[in-house]
Amino acid sequence: MGWWKSYAGDERFSSSTLTVLIGIFAVLWLLWPIKKQRKAAVPPLPPGPRGLPIVGYLPFIGTELHIKFEQLCGLYGPIYKVWFANKLCIVISSPLLVKEVVRDQDAVFSNRDVNKAILAITYGGVDIAFSPNGPNWKMLRKMFVREMLSASNLDTTFTLRREEMKSLAKAKEEGKTKTGKKDFLQVLLEIREQNNGAYSISMTQLKAVLVDIVVGASDTITTMSEWVMARLMKHSETMRKVHEELTEIVGMDNLVEESHLPKLQYLDAVIKETFRLHPPFPFLVPRTPSESRIIGGYHVPKGSSIFVNVWAIQRNSMYWDNPLEFIPERFLNDGYGRVDYSGNNFKYFPFGSGRRICAGLTLGERTLKYILASFLHSFEWKLPQGSEIDVSDTYGVVTKKKNPTVAIPTPRLSKSELYTE
């Protein structure tokens, strides 16, 4: 303590030290309210149901997640939070708030919330659907959209779609030439072999993209085909109108060709209405913000999981007249006649919106319409005696019918050889 006594005896040291201490105290005194104000300025998290310690709200969700989330929307509003164990999930069910996420702040919310199961399926998340936003994802998407789904490649692969359609209709194609056929694996391999600098794709990425095509396109098309057929068999007048359009555009002496598809406006409206009531991915693919943001006046932390509830929005009476009724004509009138799958209308976006909109949209739309037009033009469809159509759904990887549709086809074309040539 001798050193302190020696300095304490120095009057100049004591006064300067006291001045510095007073200055520091004054600065802290001034900064404290600012810091407190900044802390208070951070908005709260969205409202939401209380859960249990450790497990959160998981025990109360049940098996039908899309229905539960719609119920919670009615209780807590268009944006609310749910804890799944230690994972914060924020559910958005308003077109205005969806626009903030997928359009206004798209760069921040463009990454997927990927779990270990998805990483295993997609070879570490190197595919298009789950790859993080960045140069690699942009390269993959550009290659997929501009090369694989180009008009020329879609036309080249039409032969395969046509033959598969005939196979499904139990037609035989003996002795048919196979020139001009090409599948998407061949297209990918050609792109990889060329490697002209525009695209540098590894074999792992190639396999991951093929998984996207199989899971994202095939399963979705199969599910949506069943939904459309179920809705048509439940609404016989709508089925009659579809058949009338096909008879007029295609003719009873011909099979459906892809050149007929743009003219099938009523069938297009039927498909759109089915996607409205039964979007295959009711929350699209969950996103995660790369930094904390404010949405709808609430704090959305970095790393949280964002569920865009397209299922609830497309069934909400605030945005749709008679939302639970199957009315294809709504997509033919002036109100929704110009609505498409581009994601620009935030009341209707079954394929997503923004930079992460479904990359295979063009292929999926084209294939689904061709399959349905071929089935409906070639056959009359009836239910087995005494059975009824059930349009209840069940949540899963895609939202499917709870009970499979069973129908009896009867040939309707004028020439029997059309089924066997």
UniProtKB/TrEMBL annotation:
Keywords from the UniProt entry: Heme, Iron, Membrane, Metal-binding, Monooxygenase, Oxidoreductase, Transmembrane, Transmembrane helix
Cofactor(s) it depends on: heme
Organism the protein comes from: Juglans regia
A molecular function GO annotation: monooxygenase activity
Chain segments annotated as coiled-coil in the UniProt record: none
Annotated InterPro entries: Cyt_P450, Cyt_P450_CS, Cyt_P450_E_grp-I, Cyt_P450_sf
Signal peptide segment: none
Stored Pfam families: p450 (PF00067)
Keyword rRNA-binding appears in the UniProt entry: no
Family statement: Belongs to the cytochrome P450 family.
Amino acids binding heme: 358
Name of this protein: Flavonoid 3'-monooxygenase CYP75B137-like
Chain segments annotated as transmembrane: 12-32
